[in-house]
Each structure stands twice: as C-alpha cells, then as structure tokens.
Amino acid sequence: MSVLVTGCTGFIAQHIVHDLLEQNYKVIGTVRSEEKGDKLKSQFHNNPLLVTEVVKDIAVSHAFDALFEKHGKEIKVVLHTASPFHFKTTEYEKDLLIPAIHGTKSVLESIKKYGAQTVERVVITSSIAAVKDTSKFAEKDFVYTEDSWNPVTWEGSQINPQDAYRGSKKFAEKAAWDFLDENKNTVKFKMTTVNPALIFGPQTFAANITESLNTSAEVINAFLHSGPETDVSGLKNDFVDVRDVSRAHLLAFQKDEAIGQRLGLSSGQFNAKDLADILNRKFPQLQGTLPKCAGEGAYQTNPYARFDISKTKKILGFELKTLEETVCDTAAQILKAEGKL
Ligand code: NDP
Q1: Is 106 a domain residue?
Q2: Ligand 1 — pocket residues by CB below 6 A?
Q3: Mutual orientation of helices 323-337 and 217-225 as an angle, nearest 10°?
Q4: 139 is in which domain, residue-wise?
Q5: What is the 12 CA–ligand 1 centroid distance (Å)?
Q6: Could you tell me if the ipTM is greater than 0.85?
Q7: Of 122, 80, 111, 103, nearest to 186 (Cα)?
Q8: What distance in angstroms lies between residue 82's CA and the mean position of ligand 1's atoms?
Q9: Domain count of the chain?
C-alpha cells in the first residue's frame, strides 16, 4: 500500500514525507518537475520507499489522472497538501483561487475514476484561514471552533491577496466536503481536513534555508533580519509548529476518531513582542538587532478571538509545541545557516 502526498516539495509536506518514511510507509509524492523530484529524493538519501511523479500544475483539469492510471491500485491514502500559499499576486483567481479549488476537485475526481474502491482515507490540508472570521479578530471574548467557517464570499476574495487566500482555502475545503457528500455512494474513502494556524518550525533539511523562505517560516526569517526600528505592531496571530502539523496529518488517517472531522491546530497566540522576548533571551547575540517592539499598547499581549480546538486535542491526544520551542528551533536553523550560531 502507498500514501500519495501532493506537493511534496512544500514546507509541511517534506515533514510529512519524512514522518511517513520513518513509519515505513511507501510514499508517492507529486512534484512540479523532474529536477525537484530528484533533489528531494537525494535529500531523503534515495530511500527506495519514496517515488516522485511530476504533476506540473494542479490547476489544469485531470491533473492527477496519469498518476492514478499508473499507481491507482496501490494508493490507499491520499494527503492533499499542494496549494498556493503566498500573497505575491494581483491575479487572485488565476494564482490562488483556481489552483486551490481545481487542485482539490481534480485529485478527488481521479480517486473516483481510478481508486473509488481502493483509496480508503483522504486528508486535505485546509487552514485556519478557512475557519476564522477576521472581522472578529479583536473581539477577545469571541470563540471559534472546528465547526466555524470564514464569511468570505467569492466577490470578497477579489480584493486583496490575503482575502483571496482565505477564499481559496474556504472554497477548496467546501468543494471537498461537497464532493464527498455527492459521491458517498460511489467512493469508499473517509475524509478528514487539517486546519492549522500560521506554521513555524524548522525546514526538514537545513540545506533548504535560503534568503527568503516559504510564506509562514518567512515571518520569523524577516523578523530576524528587520532591524530595531521596524514597526512590527501588526504582527499577531495563532501559531503551530510544523512537526505537530505533520504528526496530525498522519494521525488524521490512522485514527478512526478523525473520520469526518476538521482538525483545528493552534498552539495559541503570539505577538511581535513575544517573538522579540524569546529571541533576545535565547540568542543574546541578537540583542539590539531585533525590532524594539516599544510603544503604547501595541505590543502588549492582548488576548483576541480564540480558536478553541478542544475537540481536536481529544482526537489527536498529544501536546502541541510551545511558542518558545518552535521559534527557537526556527531561528537556530536560520542563524546556523548564516554562520551566526
Ligand atoms: P509551500 O509553499 O511550502 O508548499 C506548497 C506546495 O504546493 C509546494 O510543493 C508547491 O510546489 C505546491 N503547489 C503550489 N501551487 C501548485 C500548483 N499550481 N501546481 C502544483 N503544485 C503546486 O506551502 P506550505 O507547505 O506552507 O503549505 C502547504 C499547505 O498547507 C497549503 O495547502 C497551505 O494552504 C496550507 N497551510 C499552510 C500554513 C502555513 O502557515 N504554512 C497554515 C495553514 C495551512 P512548488 O514549491 O514547486 O511551487
């Protein structure tokens, strides 16, 4: 039996592939080019349990058909992580919404066509972005849960890249649940989504540290390099560590309690001052170089709308890493690569 991981060169997916190989699963990973596949396989020491297949663009129709024609019968689990996560576009439909939605529908259509009776579990990487109503962000008594959905409309997704991303995750996840509902008598698989907060933590391979990193790890990278006068007062969010997110993806298909669930993942909230305090304390060589985070009120740890994930915690049954652990491990890997540690 094999596990298909889409977008396996991604920040989260590399950890997932690592964890799957550790547990001796056979992994088929999609990559956008042969070169990317060869690099990834060599990073995993050409482990014979890992094969890669090129799926250049998940946005095109039937993107996964060739892969399923070749491997369909051996795939029992599908982890669909591939989706654009960046804000560097003004073409919101083309670059964010369509690939997210079509990619999700496309992999499910291929399962229906080639693996309706053989694929048993599907895990979709959704996001807190599909859950959270950002207009309630400052309401400290507001609680959202694994049952909540953001209120973004299709029209509202055309205004800025952040809302386009929120729309892309919401509409893609909804498309997946709708697909399952419409095809429940045809396909055998059970589905789970994973809805993580902003993900920090080290890259799977230190060699992947470059000047700029994937969107979420770049938050720490940029903070480390932004200088004492930078205004970072807007930096506050929910966070979770990438190693926990990977672990949750595996448990999502291994545990029956996860069937039909949306697994929310958040270790809690942070703001810029929390980052500065941890980094100054743990890496004294950074003192005087980081944003000062000084000023009236802006950097106080005000509680804001809370993501209650008690249901998920019960299902997963493990403790999520703390802010200190995830920030220190992220920063240490970057500082080491730069010869500063
Ligand atoms: P990355 O950008 O590191 O990985 C995204 C992966 O998807 C890459 O392998 C990328 O390939 C692939 N991909 C993107 N667009 C396409 C496309 N059109 N066709 C084929 N492949 C494509 O992001 P993350 O690992 O951070 O995110 C992975 C998933 O997790 C996404 O679904 C994201 O929405 C979700 N998520 C991420 C969070 C975070 O904070 N990081 C939080 C919550 C959810 P390539 O690199 O070759 O372009």
Answers
A1: yes
A2: 7, 9-13, 32, 36, 55, 57-59, 81-85, 99, 125, 127, 169, 196, 198-199, 214, 216
A3: 60
A4: 2-273+299-337
A5: 8
A6: yes
A7: 111
A8: 5
A9: 1
